[in-house]
Amino acid sequence: MAEFNIIQQYFNFEQNASESIVKAIGDDCAILDIPKNKQLVTSVDTLVTGVHFYADVSPQDLAYKALAVNVSDLLAMGAQPLAYTLAITLPENDKLWLDAFSKSLKETSEQFSINLVGGDTTQGPLSISIQVFGLVKKHKAILRSGAQIGDDIWITGTLGSAKIALDINHKQDRNEFESSLWNRLVRPEIPYHFARKKFFKFASAAIDISDGLHADLSHILEQSQLGAEIMVEALPLDEALIEVAGIDKARQLALSGGDDYQLCFTANESFRNTIHQHANKTNTRVTRVGKMVASKYSLKVLLNKEAYEMNQASWQHFSTNE
Ligand code: ADP
Ligand code: MG
């Protein structure tokens, strides 16, 4: 089957119409209409076999994750998902694989109200690049630089579980805890309903946690030119993670593990009730884990008010000290 047929059969699926999408798949470019009072935000993420996922990952999980981790970047800006393009490199024309990938991609697109509007299809080692586009009200995007002294630091969902799943990867029989942790790696849930609306009204800064809380919160500190204090005892952890790893390792993983794709955001204290109400309404777990302070770039990690030592480095590509 030629490239053109693959595109037609697997990527030109039916989608809900959107006012802002003037032209989707089929021409040389897609055309997006940006409403006058809005701005377009965009980001791209690539997933490569052997680096971001195991070669034997299911096509369903891969399609979900490739799109979810990109939508997560839009959420962290307070943006509404609008459209995405998909550049996919396939080792072969495997009908069963493509069928499963395409079905899951369509479902995931519907779940996050985002339309596939174009892409590129090539042959080679499996790799998937998705570029997302979203809309924000003009000048209302949530930036990493927006945190203020005294702001609370919040986390959605729980942390650390995706990272431990890497350890249990090829274990033959997983118990129920291990299975649920495994799911957190291959099907990370993102706080879509929580972040899609209203979020920009209370969040002063936000980031999605892909490299671990410590590393990602540090980006907010750098750009907001502030410091932070984190209370380790408050970090939201899965029961299954505590069961499998023990509380201390669980906390270490919550600080330095990555791949969670939950949001870390800051907000003025006066929004505490608003945030809890919004979280309830959208069925989202939120936890207040610390405070922004004046001391520039210092990230104090405290357990019951005493300094807490972190013993794991965060994941970084091209890092020399791995
Ligand atoms: P061109 O040669 O002009 O780049 P292509 O043959 O690569 O065109 O693509 C034809 C159309 O199909 C374009 O609209 C392109 O955006 C779309 N397309 C190609 N690959 C994909 C894909 N994997 N997913 C979605 N759309 C795709
Ligand atoms: Mg092309």
Can you put this structure into words, describing what you see?
Helix 2 (about 60-75) packs parallel to helix 3 (about 95-110), helix 5 crosses helix 9 and helix 9 (about 240-245) packs across helix 10 (about 245-255). The protein has a seven-stranded mixed beta sheet, sandwiched between helices. Helices cover about 35% and strands about 25% of the residues. The protein is an alpha+beta fold and about 325 residues long. The relative contact order is 0.16. It has helices at about 5-10, 60-75, 95-110, 160-165, 175-185, 190-195, 200, 215-225, 240-245, 245-255, 270-280; strands spanning about 20-25, 30, 40-50, 80-90, 115-125, 125-135, 150-155, 205-210, 225-230, 265, 285-295, 300-305, 305. It binds adenosine-5'-diphosphate (ADP) and magnesium ion. Adenosine-5'-diphosphate (ADP) binds near residues 7, 11 and 116. Adenosine-5'-diphosphate binds near residues 118, 120 and 121.
Poorly predicted segments: none
- The total of helices stands at 11
The rounded Rg comes to 20 Å
The percentage of residues in β strands lies in 25-35%
The ligands bound in this entry are: adenosine-5'-diphosphate, magnesium ion
Which outline best applies? globular
In whole angstroms, the N-to-C terminal distance is 42 Å
Helix/strand-derived class? alpha+beta
Please count the beta strands (DSSP E, at least 2 residues each): 13
What share of the residues lie within helices? 25-40%
Largest sheet: number of strands, sense, barrel closure: 7 strands, mixed
Q: What series of H and E elements makes up the topology?
A: HEEEHEHEEEHHHHEHEHHEHEEE
Lateral strand order in the biggest sheet = 8-10-7-11-9-12-13
